[in-house]
Amino acid sequence: MTPPHLALILLVCLVWGFNFIVGKVAVEELSAMMLTGWRFLLLTVVLLPFLKIVPGQMVRVVIVAITMGAAHFAFMFAALGISDNISVIAIGVQLNVPFATLLSVFVLSEFVGWRRWLGIAVSFGGVVVISFDPAVFTALEGMGLVIIAALMAAIGMVTMRQLAGVGVFTLQAWVAILSWPPMFLLTGLFQPEQFVASFEASWLTWGAVAYTAFGASLVGHVGMYYLLQRYEVSLVSPITLLAPVLGVVFGVTLWGDELTARIIIGGLMTLAGVLVIALRKPPSPDPAAEA
Questions:
Q1: Cα separation, 262 vs 68, whole angstroms
Q2: Would you tell me the crossing angle of helices 168-190 and 58-65 to the nearest 10 degrees?
Q3: What are the φ/ψ torsions at residue 232 (nearest 5 degrees)?
Q4: Using DSSP, how many helices (H) and how many strands (E) does the chain show?
Q5: What is the pLDDT of residues 231-269, one digit of tens each?
Q6: What does the alpha-carbon distance between residue 104 and residue 155 come to, in Å, rounded to a whole number?
Q7: Which of 6, 96, 115, 276 could form a disulfide with 150 if both were Cys (CB 3.0 to 4.6 A apart)?
Q8: Torsion angle, CA of 88/89/90/95, rounded to 10 degrees?
Q9: Does residue 43 surpass a pLDDT of 80?
């Protein structure tokens, strides 16, 4: 990987890692649904020129938009809203990798060897260890929500692998335009006061909303797509594990997260399991090759 490309992927990891802090700041004043709605409305304004129908791909595009857009971020921001520990959320959301691997077996008929099964088991085991930490157990709902967020992202990732001829900006435009209307509708039905709260929110909260839209989505996802066009997934994916590590660092240094022994051990288990999965080569038709 060339130095400029290495710098780009490090920037992506930095942007994504800091997004956990930014999201936590935003949900101090806005609900998860309101934050998700505004995020994707701002993104829609920027990406509207790229919106176009892609024949034969729209069903999958809609599935990706719903799962990786509204559903994933609403659950993740909700988890941040009720959890005092940002580090736990940053680690837990990495379950999207083992979830995606499991789904690829059933949906895409991909072969998974014993090393990746071991990685899946270790990563899930790490989350179990974290879940029973006293610092987390009192707000176990947050862990449950982040697991759902990871599952939504995994469904979107597997569906995305089946897309053909859909540009990254076109896909992001559809994700944006299909995500904010249901979020605003649900907010209007169950949290109507949030519309007033959003216009009374501080500049810091609105800055956080803008960061999630333009930093995490545009810089992060566009940068990752650019790199995946030039390098193998097995090279790029392991480096992105730096994002949750940075999320933990930011959580401890900027938000005052408490790092207990269980969280450290469970976090290392989860990241190690994800690393084992990410480092495996693409599935081989010969099972002996994977063993």
A1: 30
A2: 50
A3: -65, 150
A4: 17, 0
A5: 765 566 667 777 888 888 898 889 888 778 887 888 888
A6: 9
A7: 96
A8: 100
A9: yes
Given the structure tokens 């921001």, which residue do they identify? Answer: 77
Tokens of 160: 């995305």
Quick one: how far is CA 223 from the chain centroid? 15
For residue 261 the two structure tokens come to 């022994």
* Helical pair 32-47 and 203-210, crossing angle rounded to 10 deg: 60
pLDDT above 50 (res 285): no
Gap between the Cα atoms of 23 and 73, Å rounded: 10
Place of tokens 């490090």: 10
Amino acid letter, residue 228 = L
DSSP per position, 249-269: HHHHHHS-----HHHHHHHHH
From the list 133, 114, 131, the residue with the least C-alpha distance to 289 is 114
Q: Which long-range contacts (CB under 8 A, 24 or more apart) does 134-140 make?
A: 134/260, 134/262, 135/84, 135/85, 135/88, 135/258, 135/260, 135/262, 135/263, 136/83, 136/85, 136/88, 136/263, 139/82, 139/83, 139/84, 139/85
